[in-house]
TrEMBL record:
This is Class I SAM-dependent methyltransferase. InterPro entries: Methyltransf_11, SAM-dependent_MTases_sf. Signal peptide: none annotated. Keywords: Methyltransferase, Transferase. One of its GO terms (biological process) is methylation. Residues 53-143 form the Methyltransferase type domain.
Length: 226
């Protein structure tokens, strides 16, 4: 798939999914799989920081960050998602349609970036990490969630095995750690969000990669390396 095809196919598919996503977004952030993200974020990024939410979807996560005391701009490839997100706009909370491979920020502009299950949906995650590194300040932070190997959304990459064009890169959490390290980031912390039937106490004695293998997603905090 060429870059143009990936870009247009991804935009089209997320436009089609926008309504369904918006209908369940609040529940995910308030009570579901994403409820632990903002508490994790605020333990590592000071309030009043300038944050970009990359792959912001309908903007609910951006709103949660704003409510926690951050200045936030949400970026998403889908114009339909951005239309939903703009219902939340107010001072220090804005949204812009954009490509994660070409971030609309000057170098060293941002204090932090949040990318929740969005790096897997880019054609070249390594390049996107380079872009994130570029736009972060020297002490900047990257909070990224990477889907676990058994997460349901991974079915979107299955067609690649038959030679189909897909818009999802299958990336394991441990692969993300290595990729981020190769592109200017240092590991700070991680949190595991498990699939149903697995608890933190069940996995407490497991090594990190086995914990990650059981998760719905692994939530990472990375720092820009000097």
């Amino acid at each position: 798939m060429t870059n143009i095809s990936w870009h247009e196919d991804a935009k089209g598919q997320w436009n089609e999914r926008a309504g369904g996503w918006q209908s369940k977004s609040a529940e995910m952030w308030e009570h579901g799989s994403r409820k632990a993200i903002c508490p994790f974020f605020v333990t590592h990024v000071p309030p009043n920081s300038f944050v970009a939410d990359l792959g912001c979807g309908d903007g609910y996560g951006s709103l949660k960050l704003h409510q926690a005391g951050y200045k936030v701009i949400g970026i998403d490839l889908s114009n339909k998602m951005i239309e939903f997100a703009r219902r939340f706009e107010k001072d220090h909370l804005t949204f812009k349609q954009g490509d994660l491979a070409h971030l609309p920020f000057e170098a060293g502009k941002l204090d932090a970036v949040m990318a929740i299950n969005s790096l897997e949906w880019t054609e070249n995650p390594a390049h996107v990490l380079q872009e994130i590194n570029r736009v972060l300040k020297p002490e900047g932070k990257l909070c990224a969630a990477i889907l676990g190997p058994t997460a349901g959304p991974r079915e979107n990459s299955y067609g690649r095995l038959s030679g189909d064009s897909v818009i999802m890169n299958t990336m394991m959490p441990w692969e993300f750690t290595k990729l981020a390290s190769e592109h200017g980031f240092k590991y700070i912390n991680e949190k595991h969000v498990y699939k149903g039937g697995v608890t933190e106490s069940d996995a407490r004695s497991f090594p990190p990669e086995l914990k990650q293998a059981l998760t719905f997603f692994t939530l990472f905090m990375m720092g820009k390396r000097k």
